[in-house]
Amino acid sequence: xxxxxxxxxxxxxxxxxxxxxxxxxxxxxxxxxxxxxxxxxxxxxxxxxxxxxxxxxxxxxxxxxxxxxxxxxxxxxxxxxxxxxxxxxxxxxxxxxxxxxxxxx
Length: 105
Known about the structure:
alpha+beta, CATH 3.30.1330.70, 3-stranded mixed beta sheet
């Protein structure tokens, strides 16, 4: 399922688009190569695609799906990428946290 559609479905109970200062936490689980032992867990993914490119495409998808009004509202980003565990699909776990209101300029 595409990021935007999945996020929209997950947020159907929440008032969207979200705005204000938001934190974005993402864990990307990349396709697991056959060469990795089945018992290997939490193996960092250190090849392409780059983490910053994955973050930007995720932010863009959240904005295009109207989950957030503008992706500039993310003031804090945390992201990591690992190979998916054995028998687990490639996926992204996305968490959006509404922070305390910042002072309006």
